[in-house]
Structure formats: structure tokens, C-alpha cells
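Entry 14. Ran structure prediction on the chain below.
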Amino acid sequence: TTGVGAATALSPYADFGSAVNALSSSLAGEEATGVVSEQDGVLTFTGNGKSGDLQVFSVAEAQLQSAKWDVSFVNVGDATTPILVNVVGTDTAYQGVDTLGDGDNLSAPGGAGFGNWASRILWNYPDATTLDIGGSTQFMGSILAPSAGATITPSTNGRVYEGGDLTVNGAGEEQHAFPWIGHDTTACQSGSLSVRKALTGDAAFLVPSDTSFTVSYTVTGGPDEGEAGELSVGDDGVPVG
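Output, C-alpha cells:
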């Protein structure tokens, strides 16, 4: 279709940025379920071993930068188990190194479990304003940095969601869009709720015309899960939302 115009073409995604920002903030509030340790340039993320449960880690940017050889994930459940790494810091630089999963090197495309592991991992940078991912190896996992401008040198394996300018360096890089299995980020859309009440029946006229009814609601899914509120609804059948 030609001549649509940017405003119309992008209108389905008008709220996408705010939805991604809300998701990043929500994930940043997840309590860590595993521990992070460094030894001899290897940064190890050790989970609780519970398959199906979100494996959550929190790491400071300085600690992430201490990885000189490998980033290793161990005891993080089976292939159906998502992994979340919340990176704490505003100006984050990470020299890409090989990624290990339960001892296997995952950084070679076509290797055992490459796509599954890429889909399991999400790196969340909720406070980052700049993000610099260097190195020449394969970067494993999706990137969520809603307020950051990013410079990425290696090939990425996962979705890249960042709020500023994106610079891709080097030669021969590819962005492989494996979706994160922990949340359907492609479906980050805003929603709405409206309620109406109409009185019918032989005794409807007995209810005063200015009567209002209070309807309580609670969000049960998505980044706003747990949010609650109330709507005051009249008896005239007019939607309120």
C-alpha cells in the first residue's frame, strides 16, 4: 500500500514505547531468585533450579563488566524456563564474551540449544541512558533498555527494544529476532475498560434517575498486573471508562 503516511502506518504502535517502558519497570521490581558470582573473569549466574519459574538475577554494571572470558548460566531450569537479568546502572558498557548454558558454549550459531537459550534470556536495563555492547562474539538474549541510546557491535540473538538512537558497528553483524519466552513483548498494547448499567423491568422507575453504582476492577495480567480502581456508573446505560 502506497501513500499511507507515517502517522497512519505507525498508529497501531502509538503506545508501544510506553508499554515497553512499563514492562521494563515491572520486571525491574522482580525479586532475585538466583545469585551472581565472579571468578577468574567468568561471571556465573546460578539459579534455583526450578523449571518453569522465572529465574531472576540482579547485577551491577561494574560486576557485569568484570566478565572477561565467559558469562555462564547454571541451574536455571529446563528449556521452558525464562531467565531475567536486571542490570543496575545508568551508563552501561559490556564487552561481549562467550555465553555458557549449563556448561555448553552457546555462542556458536547452530550449536546445541542456540535458539532455545537465546529465547530464554532477557537483559533488562531499566535505568540506562547509554548502552554499549562490544566484542565480536554472539550476544545471547533480548535487550530491554527503554531510555537508552545503544551502540551494538556483535550480532544479537533476541529482540532489541531501546528508546534512543541505535548504532550498529563493525561488519557482518546480524540481528536475530528470537522472542523472549517470559513475556509476549510483541503484544505490548494498551487496553481500555468501559462499564455501563441500564435498569429494566416493571420497577425500574422506582430507582432515582441520579443513582450511581460503584464498580471495582483489578488488572490480572500484563505489566500493570495488580493495578486496581473504581468506576462510578449511572443507571442510564451510558458507558463509563
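The two ends are 35 Å apart (CA to CA). Will compare against last week's run tomorrow.
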